[in-house]
Design brief:
The chain is an alpha/beta fold and 345 residues long. It has helices spanning 5-8, 18-24, 41-49, 68-75, 91-100, 144-160, 178-185, 195-201, 242-253, 260-265, 273-284, 297-313, 316-319, 322-336; strands at residues 37-38, 58-62, 80-85, 105-109, 136-140, 171-177, 204-212, 217-218, 225-232. It is built from 14 helices and nine strands. Bound molecules: S-adenosylmethionine (SAM). GO terms for molecular function: DNA binding; mitochondrial transcription factor activity; RNA binding; rRNA (adenine-N6,N6-)-dimethyltransferase activity; S-adenosyl-L-methionine binding.
C-alpha cells in the first residue's frame, strides 16, 4: 500500500473514548492474562513518538487490546497498521477503529509468538540490511510474560534475518517491566548485567526511552514499566551463530558471582575440561578471574571466537551440555548402587 503525503496528515474522526469502549464491549482486563491497559492517549502518543516518524509507515502492533496505542499509531500517519491480538473480546472494538480509518488497519486474531510476520507485509518495502532501516516498525505494550520470550525470539530472528527482519533492520518499540529494561540496557560492571544485556546489545542498539509509572495503567501492575527502542546493528558485535553465542553467554552467567572461568569450564566434558578452558581463555586473552558482569562486549566476542575455533576442531563440543552429563552420571550412579534388600535393613 503506497501512502501519499495527503493521507499522512490523517486524523481519526471522533470516536467513543477508550473507557466508553471498554464499557460498551465489556472489556474488563483479565488478571490471569496480565492485561494492563493504557487509556491516556497523551501517554500512548509519547510511546509512539519513540519509534521515530511513522509518516507513511508500515507498522505491526502486538496486543492492541482496547486500542489506545493503535489510535496513536494511526494519528501519527501510519499507512498500513497490522494488529495481532490474541483475545477475541477486543476484535469488535478494533473493527470499529478500522471503519474509522478505512484501508489502514488490518486485524489478525492470533498469537504473536507464532504469527508469521515475514508474510505480513509486501516484500517490496524491504531494504538491504546494510542500508537504513525499512519504513516498518513493531510497537507493543505486551504482558510481561510474553514480552521477554518474544524479544529473545526476535533477537534470534535478527541474527538469522528471518521473521520481521526479512524486510531489513526493522525497528522495535516495546514495553517491559522496569527490572527487565535495566537488564536489557546494563553496561559492563553494572549489577544488572546479565544474559539479556549481552544477547540484546550484541545485535542491537538498545535505548531505554522513559519509564511509565504503574499507576498509569488500568488495572495498576505491581511494578513500573519502561519503553525500550531497538535498532538492529548492521554488523553484530559478535559474528558467530546465535545458538553458539546463546550457549556461551548462558554458561558464563550461570555462576554470575564467581570468576568467569567457572561457567566457561562447563562448556566442556569433564575429561578435557581443564585443558580446553585454559586453551580458550588464552586464545581469547581474557582474565579468567573476571566476574561475568565485568566482561566487556569485546571480551565476549573474543570468547565466542575462541569457543567457535575449538568447536570447529571438535564439532561434538557444540552439542555438549554440562547438565546432561551430570544427569547421566547421577542415573548411572543410581544404577550401580546395590539395591538394599530386606536382609540389609
Ligand atoms: N496495547 C493495549 C494497551 O496498551 O492498552 C493492551 C495492553 S495489555 C498489557 C496486552 C495485550 O496483549 C492484551 O490485549 C492481550 O490480550 C494481548 N496479548 C497477550 N498475549 C498475546 C499474544 N501472545 N499475542 C497477541 N496478543 C497478546
Amino acid at each position: 500500500m503506497a501512502a501519499s503525503g495527503k493521507l499522512a496528515s490523517f486524523r481519526l474522526p471522533p470516536l467513543p473514548t477508550l473507557g466508553e469502549l471498554i464499557k460498551l464491549y465489556n472489556l474488563q482486563a483479565e488478571k490471569q492474562l496480565s492485561q494492563n491497559f493504557l487509556l491516556d492517549l497523551r501517554l500512548t502518543d509519547k510511546i509512539v513518538r519513540q519509534a521515530g516518524s511513522l509518516r507513511d509507515a508500515y507498522v505491526c502492533e502486538v496486543g492492541p487490546g482496547p486500542g489506545g496505542l493503535t489510535r496513536s499509531v494511526l494519528n501519527a500517519g501510519a499507512a498500513d497498521l497490522l494488529v495481532v491480538e490474541k483475545d477475541t473480546r477486543f476484535i469488535p472494538g478494533l473493527k470499529l477503529l478500522s471503519e474509522a480509518a478505512p484501508g489502514k488497519l488490518r486485524i489478525v486474531h492470533g498469537d504473536i509468538l507464532t504469527y508469521r510476520m515475514d508474510r505480513g507485509f509486501p516484500l517490496n518495502i524491504s531494504k538491504p540490511w546494510e542500508e537504513d532501516p525499512p519504513n516498518l516498525h513493531i510497537i507493543g505494550n505486551l504482558p510481561f510474560n510474553v514480552s521477554t520470550p518474544l524479544i529473545i525470539k526476535w533477537l534470534e530472528n535478527i541474527a538469522n534475518r528471518t521473521g520481521p527482519f526479512v524486510y531489513g533492520r526493522t525497528r522495535l518499540t516495546l514495553t517491559f517491566q522496569k527490572e527487565v529494561v535495566e537488564r536489557l540496557t546494563a553496561s559492563t560492571g553494572s549489577k544488572q548485567r546479565s544474559r539479556l544485556s549481552i544477547m540484546s546489545q550484541y545485535l542491537c542498539t538498545v535505548r531505554s526511552c522513559f519509564t511509565i509509572p504503574g499507576q498509569a495503567f488500568v488495572p495498576k501492575p505491581k511494578v513500573d514499566v519502561g519503553v525500550v527502542h531497538f535498532t538492529p546493528l548492521v554488523q553484530p558485535q559478535i559474528q558467530q551463530p546465535f545458538k553458539l553465542v546463546e550457549k556461551l553467554v548462558r554458561n558464563i552467567f550461570q555462576f554470575r558471582r564467581k570468576h568467569c572461568h567457572k561457567g566457561i569450564e562447563k562448556l566442556f566434558p569433564e575429561v578435557c575440561r581443564v585443558e580446553l578452558t585454559q586453551e580458550m581463555m588464552q586464545k581469547a586473552d581474557v582474565d579468567p578471574t573476571l566476574r561475568p558482569t565485568e566482561l566487556t562486549m569485546s571480551q565476549f566476542r573474543a570468547l565466542a571466537d575462541a569457543y567457535a575455533h575449538l568447536c570447529t576442531h571438535e564439532p561434538s563440543l557444540l552439542g555438549y551440555e554440562f547438565r546432561e552429563e551430570l544427569r547421566e552420571k547421577r542415573l548411572a550412579g543410581r544404577k550401580n548402587t546395590p539395591m538394599k534388600t530386606f536382609m540389609d535393613m
